[in-house]
Design a protein that fits this description.
The complex is a heterodimer. By secondary structure, chain A is an alpha+beta fold. Chain A is 54% helix and 20% strand. In chain A, strand 2 and strand 3 form a beta hairpin. By secondary structure, chain B is mainly alpha-helical. The radius of gyration of chain B is 20 Å and the shape is globular. The chains are: A alpha+beta, B mainly alpha.
């Protein structure tokens, strides 16, 4: 509850909206703790539908946060996704911002 | 750093899932123990079983490629460089330690021959298990599965030692342990396959 003398904090515009979306936050979190993961892994971990996951990955790739490579393993196509340096930095900055907000 | 606590928790969950949730390690290790004990009962020759040890991780990975990864996908876990360096030092110390033991035995400073050979093997097994536990504590906290195996081995070795079981009784005891591990692994694998059906072609 806000007391009489307490100032209301201004809205913080430094939140990365690309990461702040719940589905993309989950994707980036799981990519952050592994070196790389395939599409099925992210599908299982995030619980998203295939279309939804594809769309979010496209957006992240378009903004340079993830790198997507397609390869063949025993003649079976596999999509490998990994976080770029830019994506890692963005996620770490996001964590700092959220932590500061929650500590207020 | 407290900031990284929840990231570490997620990392532990990811690593634990990747390594143990399909039950394949328990299944393969248990089967290996049963087969090794059978070979020792039938032929009395244990040396050849060492050849199969490097095949265990290969077999686990082969089974995972056909059963696990198509169901839950594949994630490459990050290498912990700090742990890698510590492992190198530990390997150096272990090689050095075994070298000292070998020369001590050869120069009769320590006479291992005074012990009946089976109990010598068990003494080494107990020491080795304690050493492995120590290594885990030094490098990282052991997983509950690793602890389960370590304490089960210690308990088995202690039973054989305390009750001075004959060679064949000891083999049967270890075979039982291997059988239990195989069954637990098979049950875990069956539950895993039921929980995670194959997905359609996702690309």
């Amino acid at each position: 509850m806000i007391e009489n003398n307490e100032t209301i904090p201004e809205s913080n515009d430094s939140i990365d909206r690309l990461i702040h979306e719940p589905a993309r936050l989950k994707i980036i979190l799981y990519l952050y703790v592994v070196e790389s993961a395939d599409f099925v892994y992210l599908l299982r971990q995030t619980g998203l539908t295939k279309g939804n996951l594809s769309a979010h990955l496209q957006k992240l790739e378009h903004n340079g946060y993830v790198e997507i490579t397609k390869e063949f393993l025993n003649r079976i196509p596999r999509t490998l996704i990994s976080l770029t340096e830019r994506g890692k930095t963005a996620f770490e900055e996001y964590r700092v911002v959220i932590k500061e907000m929650l500590n207020y | 750093m407290k900031n990284n606590d929840w990231i570490n928790e997620v990392t532990k969950k990811v690593v634990s899932e990747q390594k143990y949730r399909d039950g394949i390690p328990q299944l393969v290790v248990g089967t290996y123990l049963v087969l090794v004990m059978l070979m020792m009962l039938l032929s009395g020759n244990s040396a050849i079983t060492v050849v199969f040890v490097p095949l265990i991780p290969i077999l686990i990975e082969t089974l995972r490629k056909s059963l696990t990864y198509p169901r839950v996908g594949y994630a490459k876990i990050k290498e912990n460089k700090e742990i890698g360096k510590r492992m190198q030092w530990i390997l150096v110390i272990m090689v050095f330690g075994f070298g000292i033991l070998f020369f001590a035995h050869k120069s009769h400073v320590i006479d291992f021959r005074s012990l009946p050979s089976m109990y010598l093997g068990i003494s080494i097994l107990i020491a080795f298990t304690v050493l492995i536990l120590f290594i885990f504590m030094f490098i990282r906290k052991p997983t509950s599965l690793a602890l389960w195996y370590a304490f089960a081995l210690l308990a088995l070795a202690s039973i054989i030692f305390i009750f001075k079981l004959t060679k064949h009784s000891a083999y049967y005891l270890v075979m039982c342990f291997g059988f239990v591990s195989t069954v637990i692994g098979a049950i875990n694998l069956a539950m895993f396959i039921k929980k995670y059906p194959l997905l359609d072609n996702n690309d």
